[in-house]
């Protein structure tokens, strides 16, 4: 008898300024949730999974399981374990609170949800580290997926793999996630590239309980691919050192009670990605330079959430005034936005069986 269960994956803010591609934090009360049940054939009309979808992205997200990101990741993980088809009675209700293309890790969450779905459906008993391996075959920077999976404030890196071991970055995405019609593809029975073990490593840092996240979410979308496309191939030594020095301080600074606004504000400066992304996010340089703990008491640090365009303002209090400051700068630049206040997610992703 197949079991019913729920998968919950939180939104994340990757980078936290200086930690490009290596820091991430996950947030409470903003999740991608899958409710999985089993409706046996012939009580329904067809045998492939039935997906219904509400919330952010509804109407836009494909409901065909071979086109939907979460179910494509799920079938990839199943096929890596020699399971070639979805269970034929699968009913998937998706509710998504994470807006698309805003830098809150919607695609990372969809990928993690797909891995956890496969794990639970086939009782694969994957360790968190193995779950991360599968997620990293699709999402190739570890910051969002590690934070979404583990929860809290997380640092991560990709291991240098020994010669001869499959390098995930060399595998075309079409081999990992082919958009295959189930019976027309010649490759259907072929095993997809299985990830090497322990590709990604992570460490969860402390997070001072007073620190909350204000997220100011512009109405426009910016795909992560586009926001990565404007980054340079190479950096100067002073710029790299600038970020390393701040990274060395920030990871501990955010765990200290009470938080020190001056230390954190400066530690949340960045020269590796935000300056290049400014051309895509009107008002960004002004927001990150002019809102300070002096001008806005309670503010700790301010940066892009992930690849943007959402602004993340870590604070202890006074979120209305901080939000107002950001709104005013965005308004001058004709950017409409809304705000939410979040706490750190202690649990990360969860799977709960009925
Ligand atoms: N729950 C979901 N189900 C299916 N596809 C999703 C889901 N969430 C995100 N996506 C896909 O990921 C895209 C956004 O990814 P991306 O550009 O990386 O932005 P971000 O991850 O910052 O929101 C969406 O346009 C959509 O194609
Ligand atoms: N390190 C990545 C993070 C992308 O996060 P997202 O939430 O915008 O997908 C980057 O900065 O490109």
Task: Explain how this protein is built.
This is Homoserine kinase. One of its GO terms (biological process) is threonine biosynthetic process. It catalyses: L-homoserine + ATP = O-phospho-L-homoserine + ADP + H(+). It is an enzyme of class 2 (transferase). Strands 1, 2, 3, 4, 5, 6 and 11 form a seven-stranded mixed sheet that branches. The longest helix is centred in the C-terminal third of the chain and has 17 residues, at 237-253. The chain has helices at residues 69-80, 106-121, 128-136, 142-150, 173-176, 224-229, 237-253, 261-267, 274-277, 284-290, 319-332; strands spanning 5-14, 23-38, 50-55, 90-96, 153-158, 200-205, 212-218, 299-304, 311-315, 337-342, 350-353. It is built from eleven helices and eleven strands. It is α+β, with helices and mostly antiparallel strands. Strand 3, helix 1 (69-80) and strand 4 (90-96) form a beta-alpha-beta unit. 30% of the residues lie in helices and 22% in strands. The protein is globular, with a radius of gyration of 21 Å. It has two domains: 3-202, Ribosomal Protein S5, domain 2, CATH 3.30.230; 207-342, GHMP kinase, C-terminal domain (Alpha-Beta Plaits, 2-Layer Sandwich), CATH 3.30.70.890. Helix 1 (69-80) crosses helix 2 (106-121), helix 2 crosses helix 3 and helix 2 (106-121) crosses helix 4. Bound molecules: adenosine-5'-diphosphate (ADP) and the ligand N[C@@H](CCOP(=O)(O)O)C(=O)O. Residues 32, 57, 61, 68-70, 96, 100-108, 110, 223-224, 306-307 line the site of adenosine-5'-diphosphate.
